[in-house]
Amino acid sequence: MRSLAITMCFLALIACGGKDSTKAPIAAQLAFPQKNSECTTGQDVNGSNTSIVEFSWIASDHTESYDLRATNLNTNTTQTVNSSSTSAKLPIEKGSPYSWLVVSKNSNVRETARSETWLFYNSGSTTTYAPFPAAVVAPKSGSTISKDLNNQVLLDWDGADVDNDLAGYKVYFSTTNPPTTLITTLTSGKSNLQVSVSSDTVYYWRIVSFDLEGNSATNAVSEFKVR
């Protein structure tokens, strides 16, 4: 009887150990609206300046559901909807720039996975669009960083324009919020800038992107502290 009990316990341990634990979700791949594009497929909502857009993405492994997050870049307002499939619809403002991403989730694990973030314009009555607000790469807003041996830090950002006529950037940088000091104007071929800084100081900066049609877009103020 004792040997039988030991054998049963051993088999139970093997059975328990043989079960695979739930794996963390994998990031989804976005499909539509396409990156840096104009979305023209929205369905009009009567009596409003909104249209219903269907977002879609490619299924990711180890995922039960997805959170779709779409942010109006003019108002910085984010809408979130959960979906168990690979698409979801949202009513969004016409003629406005948006960013969107998908978060893959599984109720059996705490980890989630974020997709890339794509930008698009929801079609409106205009025939020309302002550039997308510049996306800060570094320094991340709220971060504390070190200056280099030349007492400088690198401001780095990404810019895009659905009309492909992005002309350049105006860079505002100062120790006051909001920054009102225009330190330089750059062509669209350059999206980074070395600036001189001092230790134990908080700096604020923003980018005004402009195109050949005279349209412009300003991103949110970013801040960082120098050690």
TrEMBL record:
PROSITE patterns named in the record: PROKAR_LIPOPROTEIN (PS51257)
Gene3D superfamilies to which the protein is assigned, alphabetical: Immunoglobulins
Domain of life, source organism: Bacteria
InterPro entries registered for this protein in UniProt: Ig-like_fold (IPR013783)
Name the record gives this protein: Fibronectin type-III domain-containing protein
Lineage, top ranks: Bacteria, Pseudomonadati, Bacteroidota, Flavobacteriia, Flavobacteriales
